């Protein structure tokens, strides 16, 4: 979905040189067969090595057949992870996932927003509690985050075992072009017809949101691929120092609006040409 232009009538804007194979990863036998063909394919341009960009795996059983089938040629695995993994880690903080430095762009007024958090989440915070009882409690609380973190842990083990690199990109709620969840579109329609259907928002209106632009997600993938294409990881020395090591990056926008601010932004577009925002008072109440 990230590779289709908004003005395109085609299902995909991938170059003709890109080999496009369709499969259902839940049908493991069929998937293994297709991946075997990919591994043996002579149609792949350039290097005989393969880099995987995995957008839809959310449990280790999804990763296993891919790694097993491609391991003779697998050089790097880019896994699209989630900020939900921090929900099953040692501490639960009112934090925003902007990385170790918390600096993903220009400094300025946006720093005032970031200062509202006790501390930004760091990639190194992704450590499960030592207590098995606490691990089980957090797993029950957020099974999605648990499964995504299990995928990262599985990748770390297999990257050492088979000597390939791995990068986990931890995305927040993704907004922007190609978002297929319809969650924000539904909210837009909700506001547009609020005269007939009153808006009843969540009580946690001051909760601040962590968001990821879909275009930033694409840029993060492309930058990782660029580093690989520049020759990083080709020599044994560089493989030992970078290519074989698992890395993780938080990918988030600097803006961290409250739920109320975010709803107002959507409402302002839905109510263009209409007088006022009568739902504002109801939301604040």
Please provide a written account of the structure.
There is one protein chain. By secondary structure, this protein is an alpha/beta fold. The protein folds into two domains: 28-171 and 211-252, Rossmann fold (3-Layer(aba) Sandwich), CATH 3.40.50; 178-210 and 257-285, no CATH class. The chain has helices at 28-40, 60-70, 110-114, 132-141, 143-162, 183-192, 214-229, 236-243, 259-270, 279-284, and strands spanning 50-54, 74-82, 165-171, 173-175, 211-213, 246-251. Strand 4 (173-175), helix 6 (183-192) and strand 5 (211-213) form a beta-alpha-beta unit.
Topology:
Blueprint: H1 28-40, E1 50-54, H2 60-70, E2 74-82, H3 110-114, H4 132-141, H5 143-162, E3 165-171, E4 173-175, H6 183-192, E5 211-213, H7 214-229, H8 236-243, E6 246-251, H9 259-270, H10 279-284
Parallel strand pairs: 1-2, 2-3, 3-6, 4-5
Class by helix and strand content?
Answer: alpha/beta
* Helix percent band: 25-40%
Order of helices and strands: HEHEHHHEEHEHHEHH
Instruction: Order the strands across the largest sheet as they lie in space.
Output: 1-2-3-6
Mean pLDDT: 77
Net shape: globular
Number of domains: 2
Oligomer: single chain
How many beta-strand elements? Answer: 6
CATH secondary-structure class of the largest domain: Alpha Beta
Contiguous runs where pLDDT drops below 50 for at least 5 residues: 99-116, 237-244, 275-279
- Profile the largest sheet: 4 strands, parallel
Strand content range: 5-15%
N- to C-terminal distance: 39 Å
| CATH fold-level topology of the largest domain | Rossmann fold
Identify the CATH architecture of the largest domain: 3-Layer(aba) Sandwich
Q: Tell me the number of helical segments per DSSP (H or I, 4 or more residues long).
A: 10
Radius of gyration: 21 Å
